[in-house]
Design a protein that fits this description.
This protein has 147 residues and is an alpha+beta fold. Helix content is 17%, strand content 37%. The protein contains four helices and ten strands, in the order βββααβββββββαα.
Length: 147
């Protein structure tokens, strides 16, 4: 069985078995090659230091508010760790148009051995970038938004 990295509680990682769902016609199955944790939001959640742990984020106001049932974003464990993965396509659904087996891809995906995702959730990896460079796309994009 494949494994995935989860946090069962703040500071409590676990490598657990999981089952991939059956492949749907519009989906791609990926074998992970390189993954990275998000150094900001997710790492704070893992450490139990995120405002999401004690408050709810209200997207309407852009503020952290006291927790209110059914409103805003909150954190509950277990959580999947990781936010960027580079991988190889190992299987494609019958309606997939953008990818073929052996394509090198990347996407906002957690740390696990395989993924089954809709084809619009991933991108072809630029051949001139290494796996390590690709997983830095997210932090680079966040930095550019601040400029």
């Amino acid at each position: 069985m494949p494994k995935e990295l989860l946090a069962l509680a703040p500071g409590k990682p676990a490598l657990l078995d999981y089952e991939e769902p059956p492949l749907k016609p519009n989906q791609v199955r990926i074998k992970s090659v390189f993954s990275a944790e998000k150094h900001g939001t997710t790492l704070l959640i893992y450490r139990g230091l995120s405002p999401f742990s004690e408050k709810s984020f209200d997207p309407e106001t852009g503020l952290f508010m006291p927790k209110c049932e059914g409103k805003g974003w909150t954190v509950s464990f277990p959580i999947k760790l990781g936010n960027m993965t580079v991988g190889l396509v190992i299987e494609v659904g019958s309606q997939v148009k953008r990818f073929k087996v052996e394509d090198r891809i990347y996407g906002y995906l957690p740390i696990r051995e395989t993924h089954t995702v809709d084809e619009d959730k991933i991108n072809l990896a630029p051949p001139e970038l290494s796996d390590e460079e690709i997983v830095c796309i997210d932090p680079a994009a966040v930095a550019l938004m601040a400029v």
